[in-house]
Amino acid sequence: MLYFEDFAPGRVLPLASHHMTVEEMVEFAAEFDPQPMHLDEKAGKASILGGLAASGWLTASLFMRMMYDGWLANSSSEGSPGIDFMDWKRPVFAGDTLSGRSTVAEARALRSRPGIGLVKFLHEVENQRGEVVMRGENPIMFRTRQIEGAAA
Question: Is residue 49 part of a domain?
Fold first, then answer.
């Protein structure tokens, strides 16, 4: 179990990997982001993306799952107060295998909430060629070991 004390600046935590399929791209787009370049190969090729591409929102959603499966499920997370930024750097296509990392940028105890620390992460999602397709930064709150031990 990872607690606040385990997140020293510079620590790198791996994301789980995910293989992108046409079916999930189109299904997500049809429900949440029905722009033509996310629904149709011909429209995708005619766009600046150069082919049927995943919605950035699908990439962001998959990133969340990849983070959860990679390391967050085994942590004392209390959630996040938000996202500082998210950039989609390259299109994601069917057949891409996504992976990446979360790197601890900073960590500080919260005076307003004893037993909780705030950890800021820089996240990078890459395709199978090592090209960054998404970057993001956000803080996540974690319980400290002392509070967890006292509650047991």
Answer: no
Query: What pLDDT sits at residue 146?
Result: 81
Task: Tell me how many domains the chain contains.
Answer: 1
Question: Coil, strand or helix: which one is 79?
Answer: strand
Would you give the distance in Å from CA 43 to the centre of its chain? 27
How do residues 38-65 score in pLDDT, each as one tens digit?
999 999 999 999 999 999 999 999 999 9
Mark 17-27 as b/e (b = at least 16 C-beta within 10 Å): ebebeeeebbe
- Residue-range definition of the domain harbouring residue 101: 4-19+54-151
* pTM greater than 0.90: yes
DSSP conformation letters of 3-42: -GGG--TT-EEEEEEEE--HHHHHHHHHHH---HHHH-HH
Q: How many residues does this entry show for the chain?
A: 152
The C-alpha atoms of residue 92 and residue 68 are separated, in whole angstroms, by 20
